[in-house]
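Sample A.
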Amino acid sequence: MQKLIYVFNPEHDMALASYSAYYMTPAHIMKMKSDLSILPIWYAENGLNDTFVLTKEDESHFLKEKQILFPKLSSLSVCSNMKGEYYALLPWGWNPALLHEIEMSDLSLLSLPDSNSLDIVRELSGREYGLKLLSSLNDLDDNATIIAENIEKPVAVSLCSINEVHDFIEKYNDVMLKAPWSGSGRGVRRVVSEMSDSDSGWIQRIIRTQGAVIGEPYYSKVLDFAMEFVCRDSKAFFFRIFCLRYR
């Protein structure tokens, strides 16, 4: 019977930033990976296949308790290592480091993404790709355009030198600077009026390692939200939305 195995790898975004097969995950992210390894039980799909979640051995009792409360989980099982023959591996995200880990393991899969597929994943995951989407939105008519307070069109640009960043800060005064690839809630920096030595060092490091920083004016937010989609058979399906209101 074909088997599916889900893997939670929260280091994915940082591994994309490195884009090396030999990326070393920091200890604090490894701890989060271990602590939340059971997370896929909430979004894993049950079907005709055997479905497994890669997690710690001592968490099998946790899954059994949850299966009583959530019948949806009844066909899920846990495994503690990448070993055996499976139809597909479904990670939080694909990157060269995960691919290398699988190739070095005893896990047997019917297929793995090639280098071109990983390049596409990296491009779509980067904030610079978001600039292309924002540009497309700004080209729509006014009724369909995202409008920011006191600014006709949302502003976000790719800045490739410390001088470009300096000019951007001088123009907008209060700005958010973002690494093209970073973990959730990380890789962002607010700068008001002028750069500190710490800001300058961070900016130059990001430009050196990732090619640019993304600059945006600091907006007065009323809501943060995130939408999740499932991609299957070359189509995207809406999954859910998370919101955090500020005022």
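Sample B.
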Amino acid sequence: MKSSEATLRVGILRTDQVLPQFQSDFGDYPDMFRRLLETAAEACLPTRSLSLHDYDARQRQFPAADACSGYVITGSRHGVYDDEPWIEPLVAFLREVIAAERKIVGICFGHQLVAHFFGGEARPADAGWGVGVQEIRLVAQQPWMIPHQDRLKLLSSHKDQVSVLPEGARLIATSPLCPIAGFVIDDQIMTLQGHPEFVKGYSRSLMEMRREILGESTFQAGMESLSGSVDGDLVGRWMINFLSA
């Protein structure tokens, strides 16, 4: 699809689901991205409509690669190195998407997946968990970063990180906790480790559930960080700008 077409079709590639006890308050992952992207589209696509489509990658529910202008890979509780039977088919589909010259946005697990299977590496981070509001620094301005900011604050929930950039990638975001916090490959792939789709209530619920796993110092720091601002809505605009270009 070209940017001149009236409808921007975006596929959400679901790689996990929100735990049942949290869904009544926060919805499932496609619901979170729907809220984020529909709000962003109202500001960024005044003359076009947005059509979102949910595909469960765990069930190998993939459309034709050119069915959408671009695809968003969600976060997941799984590691990209886990022996899950749906990961390799998802990677094969992404190769088809690239060949069809459609766009890919990878968020958290999606960020790690693209790196790990396209010439880079993702693994458990030596720094441990990153939770709550985390600040990243933008080191390479892109044309879709409108309006531009030099720093972003995003909600995070991850114990894995990208440790080696994939082939042809350019670093766009970094932080002391997460040195490879985002990258691009040409004008076709963009990724971020943080979660623009999360809301603070969901982040709080995840941290409370994982308090013992996180350890008390990480838990307390993460909870205290929720008093700060987040830039999820801005990143939602960037995602729409990128997917519609």
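B remarks: The domain at 7-124+160-197+232-244 is CATH 3.40.50.880 (Rossmann fold). The first helix runs from residue 20 to 26.
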